Structures are given as structure tokens and as C-alpha cells.
Amino acid sequence: MVKQNPAAEPRLDRVFAALSDPTRRALIARLDAEDALSVSALAQPLAMSLPAVMKHLDVLEGAGLIARSKSGRTVTCRLTAAPMEDAMGWLMRYQRFWTESLDRLAAALEAEQP
């Protein structure tokens, strides 16, 4: 069994929980395409209320995936993708497992062909 850093597990849980929702993934994609966007600009194309968007942004901020700053009455969001590195590291371990397993399967199938 692979040992993980116990301190990283709650952080990893928050990242995966935040990314589990399609609306939050859409918000992340929009912030990836733009340097920074106001909350109202992020909410504009979504078919939900501004308070609902704010709740999604709270989850993303709690996971460390976005940072908010306020200038006057405008709240701007920026992507802070560093927490995704922990998630990618976790996923990469399993990618190696599946890649090795599929490579063995392909080799076995090729060995059976006449």
C-alpha cells in the first residue's frame, strides 16, 4: 500500500470535492481562459442566481483553487491551480498502474496472434 502524507489528504479531498461539480469545473475553465474575472462576469452565462454562484466560488476558494480580491465593490477571481498538483500526483499513480496493466494485456494479446 502506498503511504500518503496525512496532512495532504483533507486538502486533496477538498480539491476533488470542488472539481466534482460541473458548474465549478466550468468556472475553473473560464478562469483558465482569462487572467481574472469579476464575480458578475463569471455568473453572467450561468442559469443560476448570483448567491448560488457565490456558493460555488466559496467551495472553490475553500479548496484553494481560486483567489478572490476586492477593489471597491468589484470582487475579482483568479485561478490558483497549485492545489491541482496534489490531485494530479494522486491520479498519476493510478495512470501508471493502468498503463502497465494495459501494456501487459496488449503483450499477451499480441503473443496469442498467429
TrEMBL record:
GO terms for molecular function: DNA-binding transcription factor activity. This is Helix-turn-helix transcriptional regulator. Residues 4-99 form the HTH arsR-type domain. SUPFAM superfamilies: Winged helix' DNA-binding domain. InterPro entries: ArsR-like_HTH, HTH_ArsR_DNA-bd_dom, WH-like_DNA-bd_sf, WH_DNA-bd_sf. It holds the Pfam family HTH_20. The lineage of its organism: Bacteria, Pseudomonadati, Pseudomonadota, Alphaproteobacteria, Acetobacterales. PROSITE patterns: HTH_ARSR_2.
